[in-house]
Amino acid sequence: MKYLIRRPWVIMITGLLLAGTATSALAGSRDPILNISSTDEAAYWDLVRSSREDVKQLGSAPLDHIKQGLSQLADKWQAITEVEMDNGLVVPIDNGYLLGYLQADQPDLNKIAEILDTLLAAHAEYPNRVFSATDLDPLHEILSHPEFLWPERAPNPLSEWFQKMVNRFLHWLDEREIAIPAPPMLPLIASILLVLVLFWVFRTLFHDFVNEAHINREDGQENEPLTSEDAFEKAQFLSRGGDYRSAVRYLYLSSLLLLDERNILRYDRSKTNREYLRSISNSPELAQPLSEVIEVFDDVWYGYHSLEEDSFKHYSKRVEELKGKKQ
Questions:
Q1: Is 243:235 a contact under the CB 8 Å cutoff?
Q2: In this structure, what DSSP letter does residue 38 have?
Q3: In angstroms, rounded to a whole number, what is the distance separating the alpha carbons of residues 57 and 12?
């Protein structure tokens, strides 16, 4: 599985140090590898109308014919990533929501027709109609779906305490009108601190890489094939020994392997958790429990938060519920 940096504060420090360089390197550049397909505004709306007509004609067709027709439509929509407006403005678009329905194993022609009709209705009313905040309600409802949600990290108590102490100290200085003069050696001191911080960050990252390789050797990930049932049984064995952290990891692996064995997603150690959730975004009944499984795993494995027996049993129950879900 792809190595992820475990410590949020490492990400924050490294980002602050490298943000200026990355911004200047990316400014005004465009990745030549990206395959951007652009179309004009008139062609875009012609595609919406023709897609709506095709969906209407597929209504009475056999299931195989419907899937073939929707697959052809999906290819057309997937090829479009930009629309050039009449005023010359190029607008990037994401057709992922529509593609999710076009590529679904169980086609929902009514939902696809509803999406296309909504687009056509909005196009017909613009710019005659003035939109208000209430028109954003459907967007808020869509964004509340599990596939668009990502668990927020719990605040770091140590960081919050340190920030409060700094704020109190600055407030105390401000009340007494005390000014702290900058020392003449400030640039040199800042440079030394920067070198020390960089050394500490890279030393921490190297240490984490070594630990990850050690864990992989212990678990036999590189040599032993692992099934969903094997991972689940190993999780129960580890939990009986009190090693709930490792047990949570194997329950997480059991969930991904189960979905892979059912051909719902493809288990790949190079994928991130966000990519796994995106791959089943068209199945909310699976995305919701898997999102909870991933959230607890991230919190325990990467956040190093402890887990008690009752919490582990609850987590194990959620994994078993996921095993009983059907796509």
A1: no
A2: E
A3: 53
